[in-house]
Structures are given as C-alpha cells and as structure tokens.
Amino acid sequence: MPSQPRLETLAIHAGQEPDPATGAIMTPIYQTSTYVQQAVGEHKGYDYARTGNPTRTALEACLAALEGARHGLAFASGMAAIDTVLKLLDPGDHVLASNDVYGGTFRLFDKQYRKYGITFSHVELTDLEAVRAGLRPNTRFVWIETPTNPRLKVVDLAAVAELAHRHNPAIRVVVDNTFATPYLQQPLALGADAVVHSTTKYLGGHSDVVGGAVLTSDQALHERLQFLQNAAGAVPGPMDCFLVLRGLKTLPVRMDRHGANALAVAQFLADHPAVAEVIYPGLESHPQHAVARKQMRNFGGMISFYLKAGPEQARALLTRTRLFALAESLGGVESLIELPAAMTHGSTQGSPLEVGPGLIRVSVGLEHVQDLIEDLAQALTP
Ligand code: PLP
Predict the structure, then answer these.
(1) What stretch of H or E contains 13?
(2) Which of 8, 122, 230, 380 is such that its CA lies 20 to 30 A from the CA of 140?
(3) Whose C-alpha lies nearest to ligand 1, atom 4?
(4) 20-30 burial by CB neighbour count: b if 16+ within 10 A, else e?
(5) Which is the closest atom of ligand 1 to the Cα of 178?
(6) C-alpha distances in Å from residue 376, one per residue of 92, 335, 342, 379
(7) Ligand 1 atom 5 nearest Cα
(8) Judgement on whether residues 174 and 237 belong to the same structural domain of the protein
(9) Mind listing the pLDDT tens digit for each residue in 74-129?
(10) Looking at ligand 1, which atom is closest to the CA of residue 212?
C-alpha cells in the first residue's frame, strides 16, 4: 500500500491482506463460533466469535479507514449500531437531534430510550441559531443526519460541531452518514466525534445484506462501544461482513454514478408539469445547496418530491413505475421508490416529525439514466 492511500485504494485494500494460509486475495468467510486455544488464555487473538471474527476485523478496519477513523465496530444492522451508541447515555441526559431523521431512529429514541429518562429534542439543525438555542447543560449528544431522511436537509457539519463543542467540549457529535457515505462526505474530518452507518445501504450497495457500523477516533468512546458490542452481542455474521467488504470495493465508482443519475433525474422531475416540488441537494433551488457543495463531493442518490395532484395520486404513481421498484430501503444498484409516511417513516405519524402523506422518496440506482427517466415519465403521465 502507498503511505497515504486515497479513498479509492482504501476501499479495495484497507484491512485486507491476501490470506496467509492460501494466498486467497479475498478475505475468507471465517464461519466459526470459537477458536482453539494453545493453553488457557493463549490464542491467536480470537477466543469467541461474538467478541471477534477475522472477517469482521477486516470489515471494521476498512470502514474505519474510509471514514478516517482510528477505530471501527461492525454491527448486525444500522439500528443495532445506533442502539449501541445510545446505550452510552445515562438517565437525565439530553440528545439534540434533527427534526428530520430516519423513522426507525426516531422510534428507538421515542419508544425505548425516552422511558429510561433520556430526553430528545428535535430542532432545525440547518439553522445555527436553533442549534445554539437547543443546547442544554445536560446535552450529551448532537445527533445529525445529513442529508436527512427523507426531507434531504443538509446540515453544516463543521459549523454545528464547532458550536456544540464550544458549548461543552464533552458533547459528542454523532453523524449518521448513511445517505452520503464516506466517499461523499467525511464527518470526522469536519469535527464530528463518531459516525454511524447502516451498511445495508450504499456501503453494501447490492440490497443483499443488513448491517451497521460505528467509527470513531475517540479511544475512550471506542472502548466503551466495544465493551457494549461484546456485552450485548448485536454483531454481524462473517458472511454478512464479507458481503459488505465486497460492496465497499466499488463504493467510489457506484457513488459517482448514483450522483450523476440522481442529478439528471432530479432535473427531469423539476421540469415536469405534474411535479410540485423536488428536494435534491444538487439543485440550486435546494435551501442548503451551498452547504452541500461545500461539504459533499457530489449530492448523492436520494431524491424526494411532491406531485401537484396530491397524496392520492402519489400512492397511485408508486404502482405505475416499472423499473423503480416499490420497496423500503435505499442505496442498492436497483432504483427504488416509496412513500415514507406509510412505509419507512410510519413511526413519525402524530409526532412533530410527521412526514406528509404526499412525499415520494426515490433511491436512484445504476440503471441507464434514460431508462430511469422514461420510467418516471410514463408513470407521471398515465
Ligand atoms: N440510518 C438511516 C439514515 C437509515 O435510512 C436506516 C434505514 O433505512 C438506518 C439508519 C437503519 O439501518 P438498518 O435498516 O440497517 O437497521
């Protein structure tokens, strides 16, 4: 490896060496639950597979390298990763979060951790005055998604991290980097303390695995998280680690194409007479377009939009696309379309984070962009 490998090189090589036993260029799937010891407590670095597995070690090292982190931990899902970070909190702690987050994250905050005496407030993190006003003496985490799910708000990571740390250096700024991936944006370099991922999405990239990760350079934070990873045990199996490792190798080329396809699809939608509003950070009409330009390499593969005709027609449109599959999730090679209010964000209904019934979210895949545009065109004008 070169002394300062670039991200494209790290995505293929970081944490991975040809297998010393066979020369296999791909990290083997170490499908084992335990490891033989030479004497009590004397082993080759692994004693039990909840605690550690070499395929997982390779994935954790690769993910850490991509985020510019010293440490990486892989989990059984994005929610398992988020849950593990939340376990660091104590009763009486406060979390300042965005007023737009993934529905599953909100559900875990609201339905589980609130009952442990932890308070969550959801503010407009794109407004620095609102961030300043929202910070409390007992704020432990600032929880950021950017772009947010599903409204694709873009939070100025450097500005919010600086503000939070100036308020209280003990605050940990946690960024869910699932939508952007480390190829498009690196929160730790912008001042965040930890990054969480659903590796189910762009990092895996092929809609064939569920996984999560936490990356940090904070040694104390890492050690506490590692303790929880082993103590609670929400770890990914070796086959799943292998699939994410394989997906990571093509992350940079996939993200380039996701971004290019999404920009073209967003422009098509913005010009379409049936469309009321398109939300895509790459459009100049996006309220935080300048921030996105500053902190992201391209604007990602996610687009949200509203039809002029309203929610009933939005639901109907979702049954008319042929290439865009009607399904939850995102970040795979296939294009997907969904209705957050009724699908991914059902848990926000009746809360201040409620997603409107007419919002349509698409994950723009890697099919030919003209085929994607033609599919939306036929679905928009039945
Ligand atoms: N974070 C974001 C932004 C997500 O969109 C999701 C899932 O959609 C998650 C976390 C949860 O990840 P998982 O489904 O892998 O548990």
Answers:
(1) helix 7-13
(2) 230
(3) 102
(4) eeeeeeebebb
(5) 3
(6) 48, 11, 21, 5
(7) 102
(8) yes
(9) 999 999 999 999 999 999 999 999 999 999 999 999 999 999 999 999 999 999 99
(10) 15
Question: How far is the C-alpha of 249 from the C-alpha of 237, rounded, in Å?
Answer: 19
- The label of the residue with tokens 């300042």 reads 96
Are 212 and 27 within 8 A, CB to CB?
no
**Coil, helix or strand at residue 2:** coil
Reported pTM: 0.98
Identify whether 2 is part of a domain: no
Count of the separate structural domains present in the chain: 2
Is 240 an active-site residue?
no
SS3 139: strand
Provide the domain limits for residue 327. 251-379
Tokens for 338, please give them. 């969904």
DSSP for 287-333? TTHHHHHHH-SS--SEEEEEETT-HHHHHHHHTT-SSSEE-S---SS
Taking 90 as the threshold, does the pLDDT of residue 382 lie above it?
A: no
